[in-house]
């Protein structure tokens, strides 16, 4: 399954959200989208999911432009999880995960053992089985986030687009989600494209890093190559240094926090 | 435990509806012994009794049942897809459109050619359902196209609906206020929602819409479930959001407009019944739709029966009864929900 965009530009009214983005996603790889707030990460993800009509350029899946795909067919291949999605309150975790099967069951057919299996797997993979019957309203932010990831997984799509899947999660659950992403990619061959704020986490899980700034692509390549480029410092307007913590590991970005000394 | 209790509630609601319908046929202003009503139902009744039961009470009750189902379902659908708990057919401008169409129609057919304002003319009442339905449908379509130009989000639809509804309502009031006294009566009666003098024609007018709705709904439950999510999520799950949103809107408007044409804008049924159904169904969300249908039919029939029995020959219009009875129900539900 090949996903690519060419010379993609997106506008919201007068505001240019994305300018001339060309990216070709290789099946099975983990792509991390990083960039400051408002740099176009969410817009890029929504465009790749076929949810935003581009102002110019095009997005293609398997050689077909996005607007020629039926949503149901698209949903079997590609699943998108927006930032902080909202669900009807009274749904349980399992109800939510079951919605992910919509594209498979259609309008008439009942849920088959295959669907039940996919839902059970999604709940299991996200560690949500133990509270599958609880209402979304009763969950903590982290639990709810994982329930949503379960719904996206239940879709069993070959491409997973996640907009900041680790926000709201404590460090333990962040690591769980990142490990889940790695497992999906390595064991199931799922392509994962995620927007993420933590640069170090991006560099650890990403086979490929895309750095956006002001709606333009500033960097597209491996984490090791990003380290020496000085682009992180300029894009985020921070000072810091990449340090090697061990052999064979990706460099770690160490932020130089200018702290006003106290008591002076 | 709760599951058992909820099943139990559904099992009780069905027979209760039947009892209400029977009561509405057996009881009325003309005091008729139950044995005689039974005779009519079995086909042995006298001429007079057959006329009262067969041509007056039964079509009236059935019209109420169908209209109740229409308003309640339309309210449920609109509340669900606009994610607005206060939605009812008036947010699509349907009630107001029907009102304006009926007032203009009466104005043109009666007032334009008769200049004495104190004479009550034979009114072309047989056209009112169609006129009201077309008016309501046109208003709904207008709101739809206005909202469509702005992206058809639930918020857009709601805002356009309220704006269009307000304009139509004001226009209808303008037409009415320029009217002679004696002619106000029929339009006021229609406006307050009434089942008075509803015939088999009204039943036949409503039945196609009801059947269409009841046949279409089972195929729409899954899309409707997904329409409760925000657009991006629903589309990502594989829903053709705009098409399904439009289909549900169309169905809701058709149900509401036909009912508004037949019995007038019965406010509050579309608003209250879905809440009541949700409350009774509890966590069993699959029961909400059947409960809405039963409750919509039952409450309108009951309201009309109360209006007939309390008001006597003058009768209290069903719209007044549902509004007076519906408000406390809504407030009570609100209290329970807030506490829960």
From TrEMBL, chain A:
Predominant subcellular localization, coarse grouping: membrane
Matches recorded under CDD domains: ABC_Iron-Siderophores_B12_Hemin (cd03214)
The superkingdom listed in its UniProt entry is: Bacteria
Its annotated compartments are:
Cell membrane
Q: What topology in the membrane does the UniProt record assign?
A: Peripheral membrane protein
| PROSITE patterns tied to this protein | ABC_TRANSPORTER_1 (PS00211), ABC_TRANSPORTER_2 (PS50893)
Q: Which GO terms describe its cellular component?
A: plasma membrane
Q: Name one GO molecular function term.
A: ATP hydrolysis activity
Q: Name one Pfam family in it.
A: ABC_tran
Where's the ABC transporter domain? Answer: 3-239
Which InterPro entries does the record match to this protein?
AAA+_ATPase, ABC_transporter-like_ATP-bd, ABC_transporter-like_CS, P-loop_NTPase, Siderophore_ABC-ATPase
Name the UniProt key words of this record, in alphabetical order: ATP-binding, Cell membrane, Ion transport, Iron, Iron transport, Membrane, Nucleotide-binding, Transport
- UniProt GO BP: iron ion transport
User: PANTHER family this protein is in?
Assistant: IRON(3+)-HYDROXAMATE IMPORT ATP-BINDING PROTEIN FHUC
Q: What protein family is recorded?
A: Belongs to the ABC transporter superfamily.
User: Can you name this protein?
Assistant: ABC transporter ATP-binding protein
- Gene source species: Oryzicola mucosus
UniProtKB/TrEMBL annotation, chain B:
Coiled coil stretches, renumbered: none
Gene Ontology CC entries for this record? plasma membrane
* Xref: Gene3D superfamilies: ABC transporter involved in vitamin B12 uptake, BtuC (1.10.3470.10)
Keyword Transport included in the entry's annotation: yes
Give the InterPro entries listed for this entry: ABC_BtuC-like, ABC_transptr_permease_BtuC
Instruction: Kindly list the residue ranges recorded as spanning the membrane.
Output: 12-31, 61-81, 93-113, 125-147, 159-182, 203-225, 245-273, 285-310, 316-334
Q: How does it sit in the membrane?
A: Multi-pass membrane protein
The question of whether Membrane is a record keyword is answered with: yes
One Gene Ontology MF term: transmembrane transporter activity
Q: Name one GO biological process term.
A: siderophore-iron import into cell
Keywords of the record = Cell membrane, Membrane, Transmembrane, Transmembrane helix, Transport
Listed SUPFAM superfamilies: ABC transporter involved in vitamin B12 uptake, BtuC (SSF81345)
- What protein family is recorded? Belongs to the binding-protein-dependent transport system permease family. FecCD subfamily.
Q: What is this protein called?
A: Iron ABC transporter permease
Q: Which organism is it from?
A: Oryzicola mucosus
């Amino acid at each position: 399954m090949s996903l690519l965009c060419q010379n993609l530009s997106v506008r919201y009214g007068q505001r240019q959200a994305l300018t001339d983005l060309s990216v070709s996603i290789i099946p099975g790889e983990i792509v991390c989208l990083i960039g400051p707030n408002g740099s176009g990460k969410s817009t890029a993800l929504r465009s790749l999911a076929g949810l935003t009509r581009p102002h110019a350029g095009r997005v293609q899946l398997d050689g077909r432009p996005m607007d020629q795909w039926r949503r149901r067919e698209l949903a079997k291949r590609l699943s998108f999880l927006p930032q902080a999605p909202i669900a009807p309150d009274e749904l349980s975790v399992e109800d939510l995960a079951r919605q992910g099967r919509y594209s498979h069951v259609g309008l008439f057919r009942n849920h088959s053992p295959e669907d039940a299996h996919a839902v059970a797997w999604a709940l299991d993979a996200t560690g949500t089985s133990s509270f599958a019957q609880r209402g979304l309203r009763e969950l903590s932010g982290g639990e709810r986030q994982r329930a949503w990831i379960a719904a996206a997984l239940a879709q069993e799509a070959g491409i997973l687009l996640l907009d900041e899947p680790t926000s709201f999660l404590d460090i333990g659950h962040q690591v769980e989600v990142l490990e889940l992403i790695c497992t999906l990619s390595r064991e199931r061959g799922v392509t994962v494209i995620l927007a993420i704020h933590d640069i170090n986490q991006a560099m650890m899980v990403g086979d490929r890093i895309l750095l956006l700034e002001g709606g333009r692509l500033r960097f597209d390549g491996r984490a090791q190559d990003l380290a020496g480029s000085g682009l992180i410092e300029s894009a985020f307007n921070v000072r810091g240094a990449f340090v090697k913590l061990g052999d064979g590991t990706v460099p770690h970005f160490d932020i130089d926090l200018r702290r006003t000394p106290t008591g002076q | 435990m709760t599951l058992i209790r909820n099943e139990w509630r559904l099992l009780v609601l069905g027979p209760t509806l039947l009892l209400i319908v029977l009561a509405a046929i057996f009881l009325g202003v003309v005091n008729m012994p139950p044995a005689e009503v039974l005779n009519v139902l079995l086909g042995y009744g006298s001429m007079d009794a057959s006329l009262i039961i067969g041509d007056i009470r039964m079509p009236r009750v059935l019209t109420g049942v169908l209209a109740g189902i229409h308003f309640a379902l339309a309210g449920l659908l609109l509340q669900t897809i606009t994610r607005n708990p206060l939605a009812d057919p008036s947010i699509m401008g349907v009630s107001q459109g029907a009102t304006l169409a009926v007032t203009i129609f009466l104005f043109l057919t009666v007032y334009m050619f008769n200049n004495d304002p104190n004479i009550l003319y034979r009114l072309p009442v047989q056209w009112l359902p169609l006129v009201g339905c077309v008016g309501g449908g046109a208003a709904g379509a207008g709101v739809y196209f206005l909202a469509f130009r702005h992206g058809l989000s639930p918020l857009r639809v709601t805002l356009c609906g309220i704006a269009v509804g307000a304009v139509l309502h004001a226009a209808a009031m303008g037409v009415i206020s320029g009217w002679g006294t004696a002619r106000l009566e029929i339009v006021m009666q229609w406006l307050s929602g009434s089942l008075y003098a509803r015939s088999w024609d009204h039943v036949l007018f409503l039945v196609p819409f009801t059947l269409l709705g009841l046949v279409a709904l089972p195929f729409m439950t899954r899309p409707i479930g997904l329409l409760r999510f925000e657009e991006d999520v629903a589309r990502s799950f594989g829903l053709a959001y705009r098409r399904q949103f439009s289909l549900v809107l169309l169905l809701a408007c058709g149900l509401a407009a036909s009912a508004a044409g037949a019995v007038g804008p019965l406010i509050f049924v579309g608003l209250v019944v879905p809440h009541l159904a949700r409350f009774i169904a509890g966590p069993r969300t699959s029961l909400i739709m059947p409960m809405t249908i039963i409750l919509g039919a039952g409450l309108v029939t009951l309201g009309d029966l109360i209006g007939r029995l309390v008001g006597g020959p003058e009768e209290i219009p069903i719209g007044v009864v549902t509004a007076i009875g519906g408000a406390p129900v809504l407030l009570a539900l609100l209290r329970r929900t807030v506490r829960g």
